[in-house]
Each structure stands twice: as structure tokens, then as C-alpha cells.
Amino acid sequence: MDQTLPHPAPHAHATPAPRPHAPDASTPHPRTSLPPALRHTATVLPVLPVVALLALLALPVPAGDGSGGTPADAFSALVVGCALVHVVRSARRPLTRSAAVVLGLPVVGIAAAACASSSAATGITGAARYLQVFVLVPAAVLVLIRDARQFRVLAWAFVGLALFQGALGVHQNLTGTGASYMGADIRAVGTFGPTDVMGMATVVSYGLIAALALAFRPRAPRQRAAALTCAGLLTVPLALSFSRGAWIATVAACGVVLLLAGARHALRAALVAVAAGVVLVAGLGLGSQLLQDRLTSITDVTDAPDQSVTDRYAMWAASVDMWRDHPVTGVGLKGFPEHRDSHASLALSSGSDTAGAGSEFRRQPLLSPHNMYLLVLGEQGLLGLLALAGSWLALLVCAVRGWARVRPRHGRSGAGGERLDCALAACGLLVWQLVDFMYADIGGPSTVLTAVALGGCAWWALRGRADDSAYGNGSSYGRGHSYGSGSSYEAGAPQAVAGVR
């Protein structure tokens, strides 16, 4: 008798092939399988070019007028190249739409002012400098920083550079080997020399603000103690820089950091910083009389201004006159020195005297108005000022919005609160820069530091809201993020199904 073999049901379930599933909170990050030393190296490696760029600012600046290029300027091109390589390898969009708009906005005014320059060579040179400082290097730093840990590495690099330059500046003051000030070589300028007296003041101010912000990292007592100690120590070289503009900007920035950090912790940090400043400056008598005279001169800038303030007022007025003659695009990039004498009053001197710190006496020409906003207004017109200042203002607004998402509420700090120190550092550095631009402009070896700071602030301000949902302490391992560069193993990968029909 024939036996009919049973046929399989047409809809029998077959065991599907295993498919990669999305990692969850219990899935270990691939980096966690590495030894601790290698994990730390893997964390620092992407931001290492930026740290190396800051390290180059510790090298002595060649004697001259400070208008030439420096090794740090040349290395900044390598940093931009590293960012391009990372973009190509990751095969991902490097910037969000908001970041592209905010960082690309200055290009409009720069291009228009370059066309209005007196010569093509001047326009190209000026455009390259502005693009380097306000577009290319900040965008490269934004691309290379991937998470909060790398941002903290950059912040500590600011602190380390500030401690080195500050220690050298204090030594210059104590030994009389600094830049000339009131007939004595006691002005702390670090390795920047007398032609860039704002260089060390800028470095120390950045380091002080970064240290103060890092002191508010939750659940990191050792970092808080080290950061507060560094902030207190850095008040000494900042005072000995005799830079009124840096003092005003630092007070404003530190006030913002303390205000955003919260009243209780802010009061403690303020007391520690003030006590350290009093003990180290007043207690040791480091130029106390000259510091008092310098502080008093801040209130005398309108009643009895000195020659430096008089020159600054004359150049400010000249910049406004240049804008009135060319309201839209200005006189062109690097056009201020050429049009200065035809717009300045007779109160303007022929230059400023520089000496000391290993340099001979030199008459330094006045090539800028020492006010970034008026310099842009005179050389790039209203179009350039709106584009550049609008980009800075957008960065500040986005940074404050980012702080609002991570600030502690009702005394509790959630997962986002782990990055509170990053928010404070970004907001503080931006406030310092915007205030300092009222008394200074770009120029000199320390200019590339401004570009790096803007890039770090741009990472916090423009990183996107999706990063707030990342797992861990600001790590890129989380929802919508991939392992490494361009990996297809993402948290948003499709889930495996139990079977098929």
C-alpha cells in the first residue's frame, strides 16, 4: 500500500538567520574591552591635533612686529586637514544645518569686503586670515571634538597652557625681565613678547575661566579641587599682565559662570578665588601699588585718559568715519592702516613704544583700532558686522540654550547635568571673548587661540539636541550615534524579528 509522505505546511516557521540588533544600555561599548590606558588614548586621540596646536603657543615668538605668521598658524592648517580626513573617513555629514549657517555666516561679509579691498593681494590675505580665525579652524575643532570627555581634554589644555605662560609671566615680573611698563621691565607677557602684550593675558584668562567651569563637574571631587587651585593661581599672572581689558572681560565671564552654576556653589567658588587672589597678590606684595594705580586708571578713561586711551579713542572715531564713507562693505580688508591718517584726529600719536622681554626699543605702528567691532565696521561695513557679530551672538544664544537643558533642577542633577562644566566653560569663554572684543581685536600670535576657543564653544552650542540623549558622560555612544568613525553599527539599527511569514 502506497504511503503518502506528509507535505510540510506552506506556512511553517523557519529559524531565521541571526541579524545584528541595536545595542541597548546593557551592551558594552567596543572601547570598554580595551585596557584602561588604551581606552584613554582612544579618547584623547581625535582631539590630539588641537591640543598640539595649543602646545605650539608655548614656543617663544620670534622678534618682530608680530604681523608675521607663526608655527601655530601653520599647524592650524594641519588641524583643518585632520578634520577633512575625519569627514572623509566617517562618510557622515560633518555639520548640522544650524552649524553650517552659523559658522558660514561670516563668509558673506568677508567675501564682500575682500572685493572692496584696495588690491587683490590685500583682499586675499585679509580674507585668508578671517576665514582661518572665524570659519575654518572653529569648524575643524567642532568636527574633531566628539564628546564631553574630549571637550574636557581641550579645557584642561587651556589650563595647562595658562599655567605655563602664567608661571613665566610671574618670573618676568619678579626678575624684571618682562615687557616695559611705567619705566620698568615688569609687565608679564610670557613667550609672546612686548609686541603682543595681550597674548599672555588672553591665555591666562581662558585658562582661569576653563578651570572655574571645570570646578563644577558633578561627582568629581579631585577635579574640582585641582580646578579651583588652578583658578586661584592664575589670578596672579592675570593681575601682573596689567591688561585692563582682560581684567574687565574676566570679571564679566567669571560672573556669568558663577551665575549659571548656582548660588550656593558659586558663593563657595567666589570665596576661594578671592581668598587665593588676596593671599598671593596682596599678601606677597606682587606689584600691589602699580596694580592699584592700574585699577584706578579704569575709572579715569573719561576724566583724565592716558595717551594709550587717547589713541584708542582717536582710532575708534576713525573707524566710524570710515564706515560713514563706505557704509555697506567698508574700506576693504586690511584697509584701516591705509585710511587711518585721513580720518583720525590730531590727538593720535605716531605709535606706541615697546621694549623689554628680550627685545630692543621699538616704535610700534598703530595698525588697528583695538576694538574688533569697530574694526569690522570700518573694514567690512554694516554687512560684515551684522554677519560676524550675528554669528557670535547665535553661538552665545545656542550655548545658553544648551546650558538650560543640562542645568540642575530642584537640587538634582540628571544625566545631562554631568556636562554642566562643559556648558559653563562654553558660555564663559564666549562672554569673555565678546567683552574683550570691545578693547582688542585679532592680530598677533595669540589669534589662533581665539579660533580654537570659538571651535570648542561651537561644539557645545551647535552639537545638536540629539547628543543630550547619549549614554554615559557625554559619550558619543548612544541613540543615533555610531561606534567610531563611519561605523554602520548604530543604535538606530533595525531590531531582529522573531520569524518571517
Describe the structure.
The chain has 501 residues and is mainly α. The protein is 58% helix and 4% strand. The chain has a two-stranded antiparallel sheet. Strand 3 (352-356) and strand 4 (359-364) form a beta hairpin. Helix 3 (71-90) crosses helix 6 (120-144), helix 5 packs antiparallel against helix 15 (372-406) and helix 8 (197-214) runs antiparallel to helix 16. It is globular, with a radius of gyration of 27 Å. The model is unreliable at 1-5, 20-32 and 469-501 (pLDDT under 50).
Give a quick summary of the entry.
With 501 residues, this protein is mostly helical. The chain has helices spanning 36-44, 48-56, 71-90, 97-104, 106-115, 120-144, 148-175, 197-214, 221-240, 244-261, 263-283, 288-298, 307-325, 336-343, 372-406, 420-436, 447-462, and strands at 179-181, 184-187, 352-356, 359-364.
Secondary-structure element series: HHHHHHHEEHHHHHHHEEHHH
SSE-based structural type: mainly alpha
Mass-distribution shape: globular
Unreliable stretches (pLDDT < 50, length at least 5) are 1-5, 20-32, 469-501
Features:
501 residues, mainly alpha, two-stranded antiparallel sheet, 4 strands, 4% strand, disordered N terminus
Topology:
Blueprint: H1 36-44, H2 48-56, H3 71-90, H4 97-104, H5 106-115, H6 120-144, H7 148-175, E1 179-181, E2 184-187, H8 197-214, H9 221-240, H10 244-261, H11 263-283, H12 288-298, H13 307-325, H14 336-343, E3 352-356, E4 359-364, H15 372-406, H16 420-436, H17 447-462
Antiparallel strand pairs: 1-2, 3-4
